[in-house]
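Job type: complex structure
Entries:
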Amino acid sequence: MAVHRVTFSPSGRSTQVAGGATILDGAEQAREPLRAECGGRGACGRCLVRILEGPAPEYRILRRDAGFPVVLACLTPVHGSLTVSPLAEVELPKLVSRERYTGLAPIEAWAPWPLKLEPIVASSGDADLGVAVDIGTTTLRLLLIRLSDGVIVGEAGAYNPQIPRGADVISRIIAAEKGLLEEMACAVRGSTASLIREAAEMAAADPAGIRGYAVAGNVTMIHLLLAADPSGIRQVPSQPQALAFAPVNAASLGWPGRQDAPVYTVPAAGGWVGGDIVAGAVRAGFSRSSDAIALYVDLGTNGEIVLGGADYALACACSAGPAFEGGGIRCGMRADRGAVDGAALDAEKEVLKLSVIGGADPRGVCGSGLIALADALFRAGWIDRGGRFTGRLPARQQVEGRWGIGVRLSHDGKVALWERDIASLIRAKAAVFAGIRSLLASLGPGFPRIQEAVVSGNFGRFLNLPAALGIGLLPSMPLAAYRYLDNGSLEGAALALLSREFLAEIGAYLSRITYVDLADLPGYMDEFVGASFLPHTHPELLQA
Amino acid sequence: MALELKPKKWPGTIRTVTLGGGRRRTLAVGGGNALPLHAFEGSFPHRPLLALEITDTAPGRWPAAATEPWQGVLGQPAAAARRAVEGYGADLVMLHLAGTHPDRGNRSPDDAVADVRAVLDAVPVPLIVRGPGAGRKQNDVLARVAEACGGEGLVLHSACQEDYRTLAAVAVAYGHVLVAESPIDMNIAKQLNILLADASVDLNRVLIDPLTGGLGYGLEYTYSVMQRIRLAALGGDPMLNAPVVCLAGEEAWKAKEAGVPRHKEPLWGDERQRGINWEVATALPLVEAGAEIVVLRHPEALARLRRQLDGWFAETNRGVA
């Protein structure tokens, strides 16, 4: 078989691949960090490369850039030696760091019931520290906590460095199956280690004083951290290596601290409902809520749902797609500077008012902005109940392009919300609402009433609850019945670090959670199609 | 001891939709207030209608047994319509403008208007006009036909969830009935009707096509979705109580089993009878599930269904008396 050399410019990385392999295969072999957030399915359009030298199959050429053919690396086979240069910069933007937790004592601020400061690792003096880590598919966040008094002394956050290997967990699992498991494990360990140093520097503390770690994350993230093969997770039925892992030594992950500092990971309820959700639900007080039926929803790429009371709860995950995190949206972005995070529409004056993080002209739209926009457009009648633009969209707000019709958000029209973006959001909200309905139906006959709800997710400053109810993402209840938890996973991990009782409670609560696979529920698809409408095909269901 | 029936009373009624109008004969469908054929529980003011399908150009994919009754008039819509109504006793006719499809002749909207006019002049019954079903061309053709034949009370087949606005507008503007087609899904059927209502379409001028799966190709799926639609409608859902039209002939004759000649499958028997049987076996359950209009291809299938309906409704009348 013919073998060809693929060289990446300007990095100079190079490898040999068999004829017919894709340029992306070459990038993975050469360890060239090319972004392939869809996992190489030709969907995300991030792995664009310029072919500087060598043969380019004509049918794969999207355009020419200064005379060089531009192709998608994931779809373009190598038929001769190539020199290519990636188009997109791979550097992830720096996460806007928000000093909001420093100085706080989690035991006082977050404990859902009176907890005693009793760290899961021994501590002897003020130099002894602990770290709570939340490993999200998108972001990493950690808190550095002084164990003697349980006060947060430092914090840091960053985007998950595995993002170039896939934006969602499925793409990451596929990447791991392709042999990138070790690389992704190293990336997240390394990135976390540098965050620890950053937080320690901020706190003027010595990381050598770290006595232990509590880590929460979804099942895939924990597998990738521990370099455990995650391929079973995406099989049906989901078969993770383990739901609960024994503590490992921090040094084995390359993390700073005392020689034998342990790293605890919060156990998971099922392949798709991880320790991040369990920690969040216990942090929200679900394990001790009275007879009430409570709902915990984490809105991310996977919408995870826990529903029930202290004695018995059901948990499931529904595949919402990345819309809530600004993914899969033409102008989507994370809740970062320049992101539209709120919208109001004066229908009479036909004026769309946007709220933008950091002010100024918008660079994109984040999840909460998307929800607020959809709600505002729907209320004003600019989109119909199927999410398509109507004749009421004023001409000056309208943009036209290769995506069809859109509503202009920035002055130059480069930031716009298109019909297909709204369709992505409707699919995402339908997946979540259908998941909640399906769990309610599984709980027993007659759809018991939900008395309180806790919403968590990466929504930046806030989730616009009235808008979320307006588009039928969450069940209609008085707003007072809703609580927003900014980062249930991180807060739960901090409590687990500081309280043996809390960690024990997580284990006990897990035994009362039944994990439900929505794919096993015959009614789910029907609920999903019914919810794929604004606000719902059967609006009476929203009037709970 | 005498059997005592406890009839169930439903809060909802199927809407009555009038087809045709102006100088044209009118036919009404719908109006029932009980599950299909449950005459002991309610009343059915209008019997299901049986339509025959004719085409603008000679159909390329109909098996020989399906084209045989139309010999001499294939591709001549006016003559075919006359044969369908006068010769074969169809209640109404569906003209399928298949030849306007970009891949099957790409005839122009004006050609389509001429065909529709010819059929309207040839027969006095209401007319269903089925477009080529291809996105923009569907809208171009049906909008032109709707405009040129205003006031004839045509049934325009069909609008779908992805593309309903043009046809909703012309149906309202020119007084036609609109068929709302959904892909064997009750939720989407309802969503489309809500969208049509929001677009100012009078739901008394809408028929549901739930999309038919032929015998062996999803018939039971269509049957159960129709049942759910009907249960919701009778339960009082005003967005699902439109009468239902099913293209039984088209789906039945698509089946391999309906068309394979005997010399290829000797054990399957005579293909003519087999095809007709297949069509009847597809259409009959659809009537039982509540179809108000069934569109057929073979006149013998129509005759057999007619006999069955006559029998049922004779008993119904006895029951009512």
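Summary: The two ends of chain A are 64 Å apart (CA to CA). Chain A has eleven helices and 24 strands.
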